[in-house]
Write a structure and sequence with these properties.
The protein is α/β, with parallel strands linked by helices. The chain is built from 17 helices and seven strands.
Length: 444
């Protein structure tokens, strides 16, 4: 009975709110979920979502050659999108989620049976760093981004999913309302008012196969009439100790000097075991977005010192300790940790954030022969995006999308647990139905 039930309910459906470039969604798609719609306000992220949904469609119909032709600039975006069904492209809704736009967005999504809603509202309002930058307490408390969870509630009331997943930064656990109440407890009460119980955990992506230290709060809510509890993520733990960032996700990529780009679409070496195990690189992939930012002579000298300090002593080189002739900033305290190398000899790198679009000094490539910051593709690898994931827009836009994203390998671990919860719901409902039908009718 379990096998037959599994076959019937394996295609669970979901809506992705505040979808970004689709990192969270990618994990759910890879786990067999079917997206109904993605809602995102950033135009470049929406283009990325369209291109990715096109990839999954072409893979399903066994026509990925067209996709790779697009990546190689052999066909235009306009001609490429002509191949994709309109209903798929139109499922990407490029709108800001707000009270004013809610009705329009729901109209574009249409009427569907929705098993799940996922997403992560912009995290700056909850981020400890972001809150510290806003000194005006009243302004912090008025920040509309702090109340975007209420939009979740609107969608929950409209689509009545069995479960929802709400991803955000650790700061959401300490953020307080104007009256001093913790936001997480305020959210708990308001979600329960519309029939959902919630629980949460602070998880680190490096425990789930991602070669990056990145802590995130995963809030999961479920209809209160369902017999569910928060899943045990310890069963998803993966020991990363056998991996190293440089050896396993960087060394197969062609070497670049500062300002150089790689337009041959090919790799330097065979894929590592890590890249194969987590499907970050496949046999037919073409290499895109491997373009190094320019670096001036002064910064290149600093990069060399930073890399040497790390590999010789496993220590960071603070700005105040630089030779005087290399210092260009007067306020040395503010810029003390400005230059950081990616930890090439460890099983995880430090967190990739959206600010990487403005400043690559915090993400220096560990190879002392290259003396540059990491490329878009290297940042995507650290975030566990596969090489066939193409980011639309400028280089800055691509970096921003990657830094704001949920790591897909981590997202898939979350998706596996959500699928178990949905299977349990289906099994319980099937069992209850059989009881109501009686012993003979229930067989059929």
């Amino acid at each position: 009975m379990w096998h037959n039930l599994h076959m019937k309910v394996s295609k669970f459906t979901y809506i992705d709110l505040f979808a970004g470039a689709g990192g969270l969604s990618e994990g759910f798609i890879n786990e067999g979920f079917t997206p109904i719609s993605h809602v995102e306000k950033d135009k470049f992220a929406c283009e990325t979502l369209k291109t990715r949904i096109s990839y999954h469609y072409l893979k399903k119909v066994n026509n990925l050659g067209v996709y790779y032709d697009y990546l190689k600039n052999k066909i235009s975006k306009v001609d490429f999108y002509k191949i994709i069904p309109d209903e798929l492209l139109n499922s990407i809704i490029c709108e800001e989620i707000s009270d004013e736009k809610l009705e329009e967005i729901e109209s574009k999504i249409g009427k569907h049976n929705v098993d799940l809603i996922v997403g992560g509202p912009p995290c700056q309002a909850y981020s400890i760093v972001g809150r510290a930058r806003v000194r005006d307490e009243e302004k912090k408390n008025r920040d509309p981004r702090r109340f975007l969870y209420k939009q979740y509630i609107s969608f929950l009331k409209r689509y009545n999913p069995k479960i929802f997943v709400f991803e955000n930064v650790p700061g959401i656990l300490s953020a307080k309302d104007v009256d001093g109440q913790l936001f997480i407890e305020k959210m708990r009460m308001e979600f329960q008012e519309v029939g959902y119980l919630i629980d949460f955990a602070l998880l680190d992506t490096s425990d789930y196969g991602v070669l990056q230290k990145r802590k995130r709060v995963i809030i999961i809510g479920w209809q209160e009439n369902l017999q569910l509890s928060y899943p045990d993520f310890s069963t998803e733990y993966i020991d990363n100790d056998k991996f190293e960032v440089q050896k396993d996700i960087l060394n197969d990529l062609p070497n670049l000097k500062q300002g150089e780009s790689w337009d041959k679409f090919i790799y330097k070496k065979e894929a590592s075991d890590y890249l194969k195990q987590f499907s970050l690189r496949s046999e037919n992939d073409v290499l895109t977005w491997h373009i190094a930012r320019p670096t001036n002579t002064n910064d290149s000298q600093i990069y060399k010192l930073v890399i040497e300090k790390w590999f010789n002593e496993h220590k960071r080189l603070h700005y105040k300790d630089l030779p005087e002739n290399l210092k260009t900033q007067k306020n040395q305290d503010v810029f003390n940790n400005r230059f950081s190398v990616v930890e090439g000899d460890l099983p995880y790198a430090h967190t990739v954030v959206a600010h990487i679009e403005q400043d690559g000094h915090y993400y220096i490539h560990p190879d002392i022969q290259q003396l540059r910051s990491i490329t878009v593709r290297e940042a995507a690898r650290i975030q566990s995006f596969p090489d066939n994931y193409y980011f639309e827009g400028s280089r800055s836009a691509a970096f921003r999308q990657i830094g704001n994203a949920v790591a897909p390998v981590f997202a898939q671990a979350v998706a596996r647990k959500i699928k178990e919860m949905l299977w349990k719901i289906s099994l319980n409902q099937s069992t209850q139905k059989n009881k109501e039908l009686g012993p003979l009718q229930g067989i059929y």
